[in-house]
Automatic annotation (TrEMBL):
Keywords: Signal, TPR repeat. The keyword Signal applies. Residues 1-22 form the signal peptide. TPR repeats lie at residues 178-211. This is Tetratricopeptide repeat protein.
């Protein structure tokens, strides 16, 4: 089986939005239900256009964290192109553009997201100057898109700029710095520089474990990527231990049906597949398909990756015809899905 990596969904976009510090704190703390209730209440009680638009922005950002991407995109469309368009050349407009970038990336439309990311960066620089955490956020988000489009050299430069800015403004052991270290780790993993990827991810993990609660979703995200790197390095015992810790944390957080959980299940299936533990591999591939099918749909690229793994498992282990059909179906899904 050829290993197909899928890193773009789980690269991190930091919620750092001007004028929404309460929602930011809840999202950073992984308190998504509370954040949703707060944003929903703010929308219901908004007394003017600006308050209503800010509440819609915040609600969309929470929905993104909950993987409710269609609802988030609908709200953002109202604010960018619909009946409740925000005044351009404002920080609120840049915030909404950045949220749109997140939705488009998670639905594998990075090329469509690029103009929004570039405009948000330019607007924040214009309004805030060259050195600001929101400028660093836009640099980080633009780099994410460039990685998706395989422009890794340019992306690395932007990540380094964002990291330097975040370390200077927020501190070298800040949450903001940790997120950029995580993203650098995914960049190195994508470039098959696995030792560098491991180093960056471990640095990010060390910071997050110091400042976030145990089993925080952002810790689990970094652990999931670290487990993937261990798999790529053929350090299978470490990979299994790490990925199982992620799944335990997902269960504890009520996030068993999330994108990260589905991808982690597929990563576990891959490890067991490589070790020829057929029953365990089949169980996790099926679990991954169930999770990703529910969260992303059965025509999403990530679903195709999991189906491809199960197909090859069957093809090599006595179910060749079933495997051929699954491989063909998975390749059709991956060919048609945006990347």
């Amino acid at each position: 089986m050829k290993r197909i990596t899928l890193l773009l969904i789980t690269a991190l976009q930091l919620p750092a939005i001007a004028g929404a510090s309460a929602i930011d704190a809840m999202i950073i703390n992984g308190e998504y239900s509370q954040a949703y209730q707060t944003a929903h209440q703010a929308l219901a009680t908004a007394s003017d256009n600006t308050a209503r638009q800010q509440a819609k922005r915040d609600l969309a950002r929470v929905l993104i964290q909950q993987d409710k991407l269609q609802r988030a995109e609908s709200l953002l469309h109202e604010l960018l192109h619909g009946d409740d368009v925000v005044v351009p050349d404002t920080l609120l407009y840049a915030d909404i553009q950045d949220a749109q970038v997140s939705v488009l990336r998670r639905t594998l439309r990075s090329k469509e997201a690029l103009p929004y990311a570039e405009q948000a960066l330019a607007l924040r620089r214009k309004l805030l100057g060259e050195e600001h955490l929101l400028v660093a956020e836009s640099l980080n988000n633009l780099a994410l898109l460039l990685v998706d489009m395989k422009k890794t050299d340019t992306a690395k430069v932007l990540y380094q700029q964002a990291l330097t800015m975040r370390q200077k403004i927020a501190g070298s052991e800040s949450y903001e710095a940790a997120e950029t270290l995580h993203n650098l780790g995914t960049l190195y993993a994508r470039a098959k520089q696995y030792d560098d990827a491991e180093q960056q991810l471990l640095s990010a993990l060390h910071i997050k474990q110091k400042i976030l609660r145990p089993n925080h979703p952002r810790i689990l995200n970094t652990l999931s990527r670290l487990g993937s790197v261990y798999t790529d390095k053929k350090h299978y015992p470490e990979a299994i231990t790490t990925l199982n810790a992620v799944m335990d944390g997902m269960q504890e957080n009520g996030m068993a049906e999330s994108v990260i959980a589905g991808i982690t299940q597929r990563e576990l299936a891959d490890v067991y597949h490589y070790q020829r533990q057929i029953e365990a591999a089949e169980r996790y591939y099926k679990a991954s398909l169930g999770t990703l099918g529910k969260v992303l749909g059965t025509q999403h690229y990530a679903y195709g990756v999991a189906l491809n793994g199960l197909g090859w498992l069957y093809y090599k282990n006595g179910r060749a015809e079933d495997g051929k059909k699954m491989i063909a179906e998975s390749e059709s899904i991956m060919d048609k899905a945006p990347r």
